Amino acid sequence: xxxxxxxxxxxxxxxxxxxxxxxxxxxxxxxxxxxxxxxxxxxxxxxxxxxxxxxxxxxxxxxxxxxxxxxxxxxxxxxxxxxxxxxxxxxxxxxxxxxxxxxxxxxxxxxxxxxxxxxxxxxxxxxxxxxxxxxxxxxxxxxxxxxxxxxxxxxxxxxxxxxxxxxxxxxxxxxxxxxxxxxxxxxxxxxxxxxxxxxxxxxxxxxxxxxxxxxxxxxxxxxxxxxxxxxxxxxxxxxxxxxxxxxxxxxxxxxx
Length: 256
Fold this sequence. Notes:
Blueprint: E1 5-9, H1 18-31, H2 40-46, H3 52-63, H4 65-72, H5 76-93, H6 103-112, E2 117-120, H7 125-135, E3 146-148, H8 160-169, E4 177-181, H9 184-192, E5 196-199, E6 215-217, E7 229-231, H10 242-255
Parallel strand pairs: 1-2, 1-4, 2-3, 4-5, 5-6
Antiparallel strand pairs: 6-7
Helix pairs in contact: 1-5, 3-4, 4-5, 5-7, 8-9
């Protein structure tokens, strides 16, 4: 089976960003005089929700419905989100996000071999552009053959929307493609879209079970720093190359 395309999740897969988002929300709460503070434990429970608004609603309605209701009135929620986005952008400009091991190498290899690549995100397009620009560089904005974010899937607020939209937009046979994701929700969404799935857990998703993934690795690895196999068979490979991905995809077909 020849790989038709590689589809990359963004936040947590291309770069570890969860704590940057958490800290940006806490900054926004502080400057607006809201007495909320999201610890890692709290944010870990909120992350499976599809976006920041859903997380605000779930948390606010759980701990302080009156405070959340006041945010909804008079544009308070819009101003809070704007403050969070600005704080997140400042963190990216300061170089706080770094690409995860092996990700840039694999993307470069795919582009050199003319294997189409796509990016999917339940975040906004502006957050995607900011992350790529500041964590990788200006040229990275033109790397992907297709980008689908929550802005492209308004009627599908969960992780399934961008994956399904990408498969449709690129006219792919999903069984001949591989998705790389860092969360249970993303892996399940990719699998539901018919994609083969490789999972690389991040700091907030190391306890996830990744039932939708055929292979779970610590990261994509490098020739001088091999990945750790968390679950599955890496078939002797020590870092994720196109050859390795092809082997894993073919093995998953045979096992099906």
